[in-house]
Amino acid sequence: ARWLKDGEHAKEWASKWEAGIKVSFEAYETVVEFVPVSQDLGDDVSLKEVERVSSLKEGSIKRARWIKPVERRSSRQRVAHAIFSFDSPESANQAISNGIIVQGKSLEARRSLPEPQRCLKCQRLGHFARECKREGDMCGRCAGRHPTNSCSSNERFCSNCNTSGHGAADRSCPSFMSRTRALYERRSDIQYRFFVTDIPETW
């Protein structure tokens, strides 16, 4: 039911059942660029402050995370891109329409679009590592038989399109782009800027 997606309704419903019950929410994800790296995305108090100054409904930001692993940042990096997940399409659309404010900075939010699955073990497209049947790791940078995080090679080779010059994670890879186009063709809602709701302006 739609009302159950509201955080307060969900808490009330869960409280009437056995202790320890958890309610999972469908996430409406947005990409927010140039977020100050000093922002603690795992801190609920900080997220509530973002909601307050951005005039968002309390509890509408369910979680936030950095897109790129923190350990891969440069020492001089001051901003980074993040994913903000909202509790409803309406809350996400408000952020997309008006932007959000983080540490006094007005930042644009855009809808996060789905990407083809890529296995971080064998690097092949179409499945995740937990489903991989391959023995041993394949590097996402040079396609060597070692984990990506232990790669010391300056050469790049893609195991998906068998081409040098880029790794398996490169979004300009012909194989990745072909899979992305096929994915978008199956999802008619992806063409819209906003998450589609009953409001005509979203479609």
From TrEMBL:
GO MF, any single term: zinc ion binding
InterPro entries registered for this protein in UniProt: Znf_CCHC (IPR001878), Znf_CCHC_sf (IPR036875)
GO biological process: mRNA processing
Domain CCHC-type as annotated: residue spans: 118-134
Keyword Ligase: no
Keyword list, A-Z: Metal-binding, mRNA processing, Repeat, Zinc, Zinc-finger
Protein name, per record: CCHC-type domain-containing protein
Record organism: Lentinula detonsa
